[in-house]
Protein: D-2-hydroxyacid dehydrogenase
Amino acid sequence: MTARPPGRPTLLVLDAEPLPRLGRLTGRVRIEHADDSTLARRLPYADVLLVWDFTSRAVRDAWPGEGPRPRWVHTASAGVDHLLCPELAASETVVTNARGIFEQPVAEYVAALVLAMAKDLPRTWDLQRERRWWHRDTARVAGTRACVVGSGPIGRTIARTLKALDVTTSIVGRVPRTGIHGPADLDRLMARADWVIAAAPLTEQTRGMFDARRFGVMQPSARFVNVGRGGLVVEEALAEALTKRWIAGAALDGFRQEPLTPDSPLWRVPGLLVSPHMSGDTVGWRDALGAQFVALYERWEARKPLVNVVDKSRGYVPGH
Amino acid sequence: MTARPPGRPTLLVLDAEPLPRLGRLTGRVRIEHADDSTLARRLPYADVLLVWDFTSRAVRDAWPGEGPRPRWVHTASAGVDHLLCPELAASETVVTNARGIFEQPVAEYVAALVLAMAKDLPRTWDLQRERRWWHRDTARVAGTRACVVGSGPIGRTIARTLKALDVTTSIVGRVPRTGIHGPADLDRLMARADWVIAAAPLTEQTRGMFDARRFGVMQPSARFVNVGRGGLVVEEALAEALTKRWIAGAALDGFRQEPLTPDSPLWRVPGLLVSPHMSGDTVGWRDALGAQFVALYERWEARKPLVNVVDKSRGYVPGH
Structure:
């Protein structure tokens, strides 16, 4: 193990544009920068790693290498699947995430999609383009049923927002607890839901959980929304379920591979609404992420306990 | 005055397809049918007029003619502007409307439009058509301000729904009362609103109230939604406000002339979302309208006081 130089701690930032605003930490920390190609080399000299580029998988690749490792890793994202390798999970390094930034925006985005699908807005705007006046009867949202899969802060905020629109909403989580159903109830709840909303963390248990069998359980009038990681969904199975009209519609904001390339068949699946992983990203979100890290850093510097600490064996921040 | 024949009362239906389901009234009422061309001739022989064709203006035209007039007119619509002529307003005929059917659907439609505009969904779906992955930051809805113009049941339900999404919402009505602002506050509230929602009845006071001056009062980032009658809005002024970017966007579900013809310039105004007067029309709405009339008829038959009675001098059902 190389001894770290004394003095100010070293903060290594896995960069993405625009860079985080860390001016408030000037003079208190030595800030160094890495990209995917330099991360492995710089990692042994960092006390703290800020994963600002939350699309990179470089931490998973670099972490198992030689030398000391940062004592704390913060990711500017809700999900931690892109950095949690077994070696990091087994280490004493603390991992924190961006809990608190994305909940309300993602919940609003889900409400926007649910209401837009109920009111058939995509078709209305297609008709507008064709200058066609075609009145249709649409669906009420009040009184419908939703099943939110994911009992973390994002899933719970989605459920609260849908309930505010008078949607009867159930939440499914990894373990049953008050107000949260366990995985054993999932099929039954999906079978009677008008809306199935995927907002679970991506873990070995949840990868590919929305597959052909699960889409087959849903009602033909029901719709599916994924605002979690793309890996939750077997995309080919969803495309087939839509094409064969097993379900009435779907919206994906996350994909197995991002960005979606122009030749992806997903752009043109009938009844599928595609958006470029933006459900949580409201104006000012990057500044909010930067400010959140600075506040966490000041706790760390003052040796106060960190918040937003990820349970590395589960892959998310446990909570109520 | 011609004496009406004794026996069962005569219900005259101003028809539209699909016809109302009045089977429950069989044997208790003589049902006759009229269209725009026969209404004037049949009106003197009717005890009750059901304006099922709520797009027709034939009642306004036929009412001032010769002979007796129905004692009760019910319209299968929230608005009564299409039938209230001065002669009907001055008469002893009771007018009722479809209060109770459209509130929740219209409020959901407004929420759908507000969220879709905040989250830039129309552009997302344009980009999907072009197979383009283009991430944008969008707006939060929570914490924004709405001004709902119209303090009737529809306006109040819209306000309640927006408040449930944590939008700070003010209501403007004809007269100030608890929780409702008067017209004197309108410009001030519009000037600070992120969303201006038009849901007022169409009366001589409200016709053309959203004009160039009022769009000029709004913030450049604000958006306008009309789910009331088209006549509330000076359409040319709205088109100009959008084209010159005085405001950021608008959605119209009602138009001065409906249906909008293919050559209308409104289909292509930048930032304007057009929908074919369907905000209140959720699946089963016609059945609900028919059942509502049957229930009212049974009150009338039993000489119980009618509900949903329009104040003909104001042009809407007064309420809390």
